[in-house]
Design goal:
By secondary structure, the chain is an alpha/beta fold. The protein has two domains: 9-20 and 92-186, HAD superfamily/HAD-like (Rossmann fold, 3-Layer(aba) Sandwich), CATH 3.40.50.1000; 22-85, DNA polymerase, domain 1, CATH 1.10.150. 47% of the residues lie in helices and 9% in strands. It has nine helices and five strands. The protein has helices at 22-34, 42-48, 53-61, 67-85, 89-92, 97-103, 117-126, 150-159, 173-181, and strands spanning 9-12, 109-112, 135-137, 166-169, 185-186. The chain has a five-stranded parallel sheet, with helices on one face. Strand 2, helix 7 and strand 3 form a beta-alpha-beta unit. Helix 1 (22-34) packs across helix 4 and helix 3 (53-61) packs across helix 4 (67-85). The radius of gyration is 16 Å and the shape is globular.
Amino acid sequence: MADLQAGLAIILDMDGVIIDSNPVHRHAWSIYNRRFGIETDDAMQQRMYGKRNDEIVRDFLGADLSPEQVREHGAAKERLYRELMAQAIPEALVPGVREFLERHAQAPKGVATNAEPENVDFVLDSAGLRPYFQVVIDGNQVRNPKPDPEIYLRTAEKLDVRACDCIVFEDSRPGLEAARNAGMRTV
């Protein structure tokens, strides 16, 4: 990752940017959905990128689920994800991410992710990356998930920086749309 202009705050998405977790999420969804007789095809897998868990659960398991059922399904799938990912954290970190964070130690940094709070804690703590970030905003801390810009605007506010002084590292279309709609630069 390249050097950044002085004075910019750095905001990173988590899944796909800090950690290459998408293959494990895909595998976990396949296993979980199979329990309900649902074969998870490529089209379904593609629809999950950049979405919050409640949206994915309703898409995969039914729009008529109660909020409690959605939470239960989401929590069960994420427990499976953490179980599968537990031994792979060091190898799953995106190459160069730790060095990038160290190189830009003086810049204000935040994580803005649609991920569940338990997954954020699991990844940042297991990988020893939490100290690099002054702010961590997960999908449950905002009303509207990406592509809404709320998560990025809240992260900038908590970092005490203007949106136009933020550079966002993203890997999904909804995430890029959210950051751009917040008035931030994107990578």
